[in-house]
Write a structure and sequence with these properties.
The protein has 13 helices and nine strands. By secondary structure, it is of the alpha/beta class. The protein has two domains: 200 residues, 3-Layer(aba) Sandwich (Rossmann fold), CATH 3.40.50.150; 86 residues, Adenine-specific Methyltransferase, domain 2, CATH 1.10.1020. Strands 1, 2, 3, 4, 5, 6, 7, 8 and 9 form a nine-stranded mixed sheet that branches. Strand 5, helix 9 and strand 6 form a beta-alpha-beta unit.
């Protein structure tokens, strides 16, 4: 069944985000967390990225423990630095940031070369703070190849330090880190967990940008969702989207019995540039067992009057 969320979600102010990341779910995190069942113990993110949803859940007290996984080992190495050595990582970032001043363009290339040789967490953090759209891009050889955004120097070290320390305070003592295939994480998930998945959109795997060098195969992914259903593991899935005129991604089979929620995400950037007023929507899918465990029906949660009544007062 398809439902529509009635308002454009807003990001939760005050959450520390040390990793700037294209495609991050910061704006949708408030909404996603509102669909957590009561007393969620462990949140599992097989495609963690910037871990925006885990950060929101920790900040709002909607989950107690976390599993962060991403196949990008360098990214998970950065998360290891944030959670296990926050003071040291912040100091290293500060040294890199200061050393670039007056020679930002050339210094970016130097750090990018060094990262591709040694995969140091502080170098990746600096590259993400400086690169175009804060987007991880790898070439066919697996080397980071995104260009710098020459309009900015990256987050000031004081700001970055606050975000690193804040993230560590929220997650450090309650989080497992992994860098394995998502299927391994899903196979170990339990019916007492809640799984949140934000896999790469179809069409961005094995393409010229090589952000996702290992494709998420549709049939394989659908099979894994089916096994989660059969094992009664609740999950929330961010999977596809559309504009007023175009749909992105192959539809999921109805046999999975997922509840779809279309969420307005504002005007399409590309359409705005072309002078058109086209809206974009992102889709969330709720698994059958999750819907059963919610305190309110999905229809109730999506109704505007319930937005105002604050069914989740600590979230909405």
């Amino acid at each position: 069944m398809k439902h529509t969320w009635q308002t454009v979600p807003k990001a939760i102010p005050g959450i520390p985000h040390p990793i700037p990341y294209q495609g991050s779910k910061r704006q949708l995190a408030r909404l996603i967390v509102s669909f957590f069942p009561p007393n969620t113990d462990r949140l599992v993110e097989p495609f963690a990225g910037s871990a925006a949803v885990s950060m929101a859940a920790a900040y709002l007290g909607r989950a107690r423990r976390f599993v962060l996984n991403d196949l990008d080992t360098a990214l998970m190495g950065l998360w290891g630095g944030i959670l296990n050595q926050p003071t040291e990582l912040a100091a290293k970032y500060r040294r890199i940031w200061r050393a670039q001043l007056g020679n930002e363009r050339r210094y970016y290339d130097l750090i990018r070369t060094r990262f591709n040789e040694h995969r140091r967490p502080e170098d990746l953090l600096y590259l993400l703070a400086r690169c175009v759209k804060a987007a991880i891009r790898y070439n066919a050889q697996g080397k980071f190849n995104n260009s710098p955004d020459n309009r900015r120097k990256g987050a000031h070290p004081d700001t970055m330090s606050r975000h690193i320390r804040g993230a560590a305070a929220l997650l450090a003592n309650h989080t497992e880190l992994h860098a394995v295939d998502y299927k391994m994480i899903l196979k170990k998930s339990r019916s007492s967990d809640l799984v949140y998945m934000d896999p790469p959109y179809q069409g961005v795997c094995n393409t010229h940008n090589h952000r996702y060098r290992h494709a998420i195969l549709y049939d394989e992914f659908v099979h894994m969702l089916g096994t989660l259903n059969s094992r009664q593991v609740p999950f929330i899935l961010s999977y596809d989207g559309r504009t007023d005129t175009k749909r992105f991604g192959r539809e999921l089979p109805k046999s999975l019995a997922l509840e779809q929620i279309e969420v307005p995400a504002g005007r399409s950037t590309q359409a705005t540039l072309l002078g058109r007023n086209s809206r974009t929507y992102e889709s969330l899918y709720l698994s059958p067992v999750l819907v059963e465990r919610l305190s309110h029906s999905v229809e109730q949660l999506c109704e505007p009057r319930h937005h105002q009544r604050n069914l989740f007062p600590e979230v909405l």
